[in-house]
Write a structure and sequence with these properties.
This protein is mainly α. It has 7 helices and no strands. α1 (8-43) packs parallel to α3 (86-105), α2 packs antiparallel against α3 and α2 runs antiparallel to α4 (107-118). The protein is elongated and about 60 Å long.
């Protein structure tokens, strides 16, 4: 998804599609896993284990993912902001958004492990929380302008849906 010969509208549509692919993947994966666990419990094949380990591991993994995402995003954002070319800024921003989405969706696998071992659906609250963060941080022109610190000329280029990102 390079930005050559691409309008701002197409760029943000593609970036939003990537973001929602992460969200959809999380929802489908966790939803399917819950259905599987529900089928297992209907047949009586489940084994309930102590949730004491997961009671600490799941929230810690969520906190680590949020802290790591914020630190990495802010650190790398500094170098992206220093770019003078709008195209280079947008390529760097796309990479940051994809990394942020990937890191925030990682703890959902810990939730799956917790669900498999404990059958405690309370862990799904962490998934809802992470998906909420991804929805709030979805890439928009307004958010990109604020995070990248674009000048007026670059902002006008982004707000014009037919302008090419060069």
């Amino acid at each position: 998804m390079g930005t050559s010969h691409q309008t701002a509208k197409v760029y943000f549509n593609k970036l939003s599609l990537i973001q929602f692919a992460f969200i959809g993947g999380i929802v489908i994966l966790i939803g399917g896993f819950c259905v599987y666990l529900n089928l297992l419990s209907a047949t009586g094949d489940t084994h309930k284990y102590s949730s004491s380990g997961f009671m600490f591991l799941v929230p810690i993994s969520v906190i680590i993912a949020i802290v790591q995402t914020n630190y990495t995003f802010k650190t790398k954002l500094g170098s992206v902001r220093n770019e003078t070319n709008l195209k280079a800024k947008m390529i760097g921003y796309k990479e940051l958004v994809v990394v942020r989405s990937a890191v925030l969706s990682g703890p959902c696998f810990m939730v799956m492990a917790a669900l498999a071992r404990t059958n405690n659906i309370d862990y799904l609250l962490y998934v809802v929380f992470l998906v909420g963060i991804l929805i709030i941080k979805r890439p928009t022109i307004k958010l990109a302008v604020a995070e990248l610190g674009l000048n007026q000329e670059q902002t006008a280029k982004l707000k014009d849906p037919n302008s090419l990102l060069t």
